[in-house]
Hints:
The chain has helices at 6-18, 21-26, 57-73; strands at 28-34, 37-43, 80-91, 99-108, 113-126, 129-146. By secondary structure, the chain is of the alpha+beta class. It has a single domain, classed as Hotdog Thioesterase (Thiol Ester Dehydrase, Chain A), CATH 3.10.129. Strands 1-2-4-5-6-3 form a 6-stranded antiparallel beta sheet.
Amino acid sequence: MTTPDFAATARRVEASFARQTIMETLGARLVRVAPGEVEIALAVAPHVAQQHGFVHAGAVATIADSAAGYAALTTMPEGRGVLTAEFKINLLSPAAGERLVAVGRVVKAGRTLTVAQAEVFAERIGGDETTRKPCALLTATLVAVENRQGVVD
């Protein structure tokens, strides 16, 4: 059995992320891609705020869904992508700080269905240290699909 070239998988994730114009609209960026794990960061800014000044739950859910989905994609062979079939999100505390970080991790990878989670942390940067407070937890079921240009990876 040969070891898959993870660098190629990471490039596939990066290319797919670049095609998600919602990420550009939000100002989110792909921070890290590892086997079964992806990190997405979002700078807190007025254009993603709700009426109380916190990051809108829709923006939080969007980066969490993408982090979980791309974590799942890292487990898929070339020519297969993933689509979110279902997710549940718990909003644990207001999303406030300088930056949000969504960390997606695969819980169980399968040929047809993959379960992944994403934790979203609100970061505050003060002096020499950055503190992280959990603000959301998303659990997703993703379905494997044959690669279709423009729809999935």
